[in-house]
Every structure is written in structure tokens, then in C-alpha cells.
Amino acid sequence: MNPQLQTRLSACAERVDQALKQALSNRPSQSSALQAAMDYSLFNGGKRLRPLLVYSVCEALGADLVAADPAAMAVELIHTYSLVHDDLPAMDDDDLRRGRPTCHKAYDEATAILVGDALQSLAFEVLTEAAPETVGPLVQTLAQAGGHRGMVAGQMLDLQAEGQSISLTDLQALHELKTGALIRAAVRMGGLVAQANASTLACLDEYATCVGLAFQVQDDLLDVTGDAQVLGKKTGADAALHKATYPALLGLSGAQQKAQALVHQAQQSLQSLPGDWQLLALLADWCVSRDH
Fold first, then answer.
1. So what's the pLDDT on residue 275?
2. Which of 27, 227, 261, 269 yields a CA-CA distance of 20 to 30 A from 219?
3. What are the residue ranges of helices labelled H in the chain?
4. Do the Cβ atoms of 111 and 33 come closer than 8 Å?
5. Do residues 208 and 187 touch, judged by C-beta distance below 8 A?
6. What parts of the chain have a pLDDT lower than 70?
């Protein structure tokens, strides 16, 4: 990873983790068992990509990072809830997440379901602490991205596609919802915090759409070519579940070319924007060069 990007990613991860710990401390659960399982799932070494997007967009547009904390926390809480539920036996049935037992393995299935429920509702609770003039648009953006019109719809389409032959167009539509919706939301939320105008938000949405899809293509590639120890989870899961993937439809070389083309398009979309967008350009590169 580029040293500048690594430094910024570490700083953003530390910032959002401290904010999340404070938020949980200020809102202790009535169940200590639930609280422990929430902490286990939330603080498990995640990359914090989505908070980084919120902070980076906000910073590039000249806004105060303190104003971005609620949005950064909220998008990470929704992302973590989705992973806890995605790992369940009824979904992807994964035993490991980032090298540790998944929530339902460390605890049990009922606890994992409740952890996801709790993290989802907490996301909107912390989001109400954003500046009054931005709360409404932020809530609307996150609710749409994380719900039946976004990520959840993508998860359903993914389950329905197991063992089925689907087209490249359908695969892209699936992943633009399942993975891309929350990445687009993170970028847009950074823009909303900074009160960006409509044309800036449109450029940012193009960037986020390309980055979200490139991130998923690389995920598909890593499931085929990655090291399980580095990934922190088993490889070959997509093939075992007979899922449609970019390598399956395009071949390894074709999927790699697709990812690079998406990165180029993402970076091009930033060129008309005033300000320093180097970090987001580097982030697009990292999405297709990462090994986990």
C-alpha cells in the first residue's frame, strides 16, 4: 500500500474506532452479553474503508472532520451488521472473519442475529448527532443504501444467483447493490457533510460506483488467487457455493482488466473537481492491488 494512503487509513481507523468506543460507552446495552458480542464484532481489525471515504471526501471539500464523525460511525456500523448477518449459516455460512471465529461461531446464531439488529439501529442513533441541516439527507442516504433498495436487495439477489447462470449485466447490477451501495453512500455522505453542490455529488457518485465495483471484482479474484491466511478466511467459497463471479464469467485476466478499467474511470471522474483528490485516486488503485 502507498505509504501516504497507509498513514491516512490508519489515522481514520483510529479516529472512527475511538468515536465508536465512546458512542458505545455512552449507550451501554442492558445486556452485558449483547454488549460483549457487539464489541467482538465491531472491533476486529476491519480496514474501515467506508469511514475513510467519508473522512477523505469531507476533507477534500474543506469541511471539519469532527462534523463527519457521526456519518463515519454510522456507515461502519451498517457495514459490520451486514457482515455479521452475511456470515450466518443461512447466508454464506462462514466460520472465519478477519482470522477470527465469526460472531455466530464465537457466540451463537441467535446472538449474531441480535448483534446485527443492534448495530443497525445504533447506526441511525449516532447519525442523529450530525449537524441539523444534514441529518435528513444523511439518514435518507444511509437508509436507502443499506435497505431493500440497496445492500439488502443485493444480498437477496446474491442468494438467488447461487447455482444459477447469470449474465455479466446481472452480476454487475447485483454487486452495485450488495457491495457498491454502501460504498456510494459513504462517499455521498462525506459530500453531504461538506454541503457539496449537486454537480460535485454527481462526480463523486460516478467515482464511488466505479470503486465499489472494482472492490468487488478484486474480492472475487482474491477468492480464487488469494492466501487464506492473509485474507483471514477460507478461499474458494464462491466456487463452493456455485456463485457467479467476475473470474468465472471473464476469466482471471479479463477480471483483472475489468478492475483496472474501473479504477481508471474512477480517477477520471475526480479530475473536474476543485481541491486535492490524490488520496481518493490512490484509494482506487489500492482497491485492485490489495491482498486482503
1. 87
2. 269
3. 3-26, 32-42, 49-60, 65-86, 103-106, 109-127, 132-146, 151-161, 168-178, 180-193, 198-225, 228-231, 237-240, 246-269, 278-289
4. yes
5. yes
6. none
Does 290 fall in a domain?
A: no
pTM for this predicted structure: 0.94
Specify if 291 maps to a domain: no
Amino acid at 215: F
pLDDT for the residue 234: 72
Q: What CATH number should be reported for the domain holding residue 75? A: 1.10.600.10
The alpha-carbon radius of gyration of the chain (Å, integer) is: 18
Report if residue 182 sits inside a domain. Answer: yes
Per-residue pLDDT at 167 = 93
Determine, yes or no, domain membership for 292. Answer: no
CA–centroid distance for 128 within its chain: 21
For residue 36, give its domain range.
3-285
* pLDDT score recorded for residue 232: 72
Which pLDDT score is estimated for 238? 76
- List the grid coordinates of 76: 461502519
Amino acid in the structure at residue 249:
L
- Contact predicate 118/41, CB 8 Å: no
Residue 63: which of 198, 183, 195 has the closest Cα? 195
Tally of structural domains, the chain: 1
pLDDT at 48: 96
- Comparing CA positions, the residue from 267, 268, 271 lying closest to residue 281 is 267
